[in-house]
């Protein structure tokens, strides 16, 4: 939702997220505690959460909120309904400054503080390695740079690390190489991928990550999304239906409620229309 140009009414967000909670996904990235000026679309996250609390559902799906600094982590940590805090940590200096108004070095200090908050509030921190497969700004990038920062973050006790192809630059070979290295070096961590992709190569990227040992995939209905802070053409997220279709080759996904998924898709068609 964050990059959608038309404000989605709070009530419609609640209806949509309530439907998604009934599908049976492991985690639902439902909102963020960031600057309302930076991301006005999600300024109503606390209200959305209040609305979801008033409509309880029998679900094991956990809620994740994005934060960009310590203050946001403190705000999110007071809500018992939130299980995960997600922080975008970029290996591109330019993007880290644009996205969180902090340098990479400052952001590593933030990660340490946010991890402490998560431990105290019984939440888990998810670190997204933004620009993990390259960047459009000309900033230094190499697999070794990615591995160095991933290892530093892991040393802080962060349990979940998601490799993000923030602007869709990666090819399947890069996804395979970097993901397999990280899953191999950090066998006790959850390693995920947050891939942005155009239709022509999304399946190849999904397959590369799966074959590299990744079992945590981010997706969005209809492939809607993209990072508005990248100052680049938004490259959509991986389409949830495509992801499900691929994973059904290898995993029993009978636990997914296809009726609830169809309802969610209908709502997405209503909401994401310009």
Automatic annotation (TrEMBL):
The keyword Transcription does not apply. PROSITE patterns: PYR_CT. The keyword Membrane does not apply. CDD domains: DRE_TIM_HMGL. InterPro entries: Aldolase_TIM, HMGL, PYR_CT. Residues 1-262 form the Pyruvate carboxyltransferase domain. Keywords: Lyase, Metal-binding. GO terms for biological process: ketone body biosynthetic process; L-leucine catabolic process. SUPFAM superfamilies: Aldolase (SSF51569). It comes from the Bacteria. GO terms for molecular function: hydroxymethylglutaryl-CoA lyase activity; metal ion binding. Belongs to the HMG-CoA lyase family. This is Hydroxymethylglutaryl-CoA lyase. It comes from Niastella vici.
């Amino acid at each position: 939702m964050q990059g959608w140009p038309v404000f989605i009414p709070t009530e419609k967000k609640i209806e949509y997220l309530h439907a998604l909670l009934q599908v049976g996904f492991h985690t639902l990235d439902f909102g963020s505690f960031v600057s309302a000026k930076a991301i006005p679309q999600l300024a109503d996250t606390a209200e959305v959460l209040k609305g979801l609390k008033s409509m309880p559902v029998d679900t094991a799906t956990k809620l994740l909120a994005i934060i960009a600094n310590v203050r946001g982590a403190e705000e999110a940590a007071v809500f018992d309904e939130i299980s995960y805090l997600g922080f975008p940590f970029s290996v591109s200096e330019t993007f880290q400054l644009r996205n969180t108004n902090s340098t990479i070095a400052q952001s590593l200090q933030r990660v340490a503080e946010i991890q402490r908050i998560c431990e105290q509030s019984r939440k888990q921190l998810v670190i997204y390695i933004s620009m993990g497969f390259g960047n459009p700004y000309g900033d230094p990038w190499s697999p070794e740079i990615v591995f160095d920062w991933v290892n530093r973050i892991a040393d802080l006790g962060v349990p979940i690390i998601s490799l993000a192809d923030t602007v869709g630059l990666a090819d399947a070979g890069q996804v395979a190489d970097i993901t397999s290295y990280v899953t191999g070096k950090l066998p006790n961590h959850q390693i995920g991928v947050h891939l942005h992709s155009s239709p022509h190569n999304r399946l190849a990227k999904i397959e590369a990550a799966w074959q590299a040992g990744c079992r945590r995939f981010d997706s969005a209905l209809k492939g809607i999304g993209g990072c508005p802070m990248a100052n680049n053409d938004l490259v959509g997220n991986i389409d949830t239906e495509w992801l499900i279709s691929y994973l059904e080759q290898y995993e029993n996904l009978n636990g997914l409620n296809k009726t609830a998924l169809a309802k969610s898709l209908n709502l997405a068609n209503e909401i994401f229309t310009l």
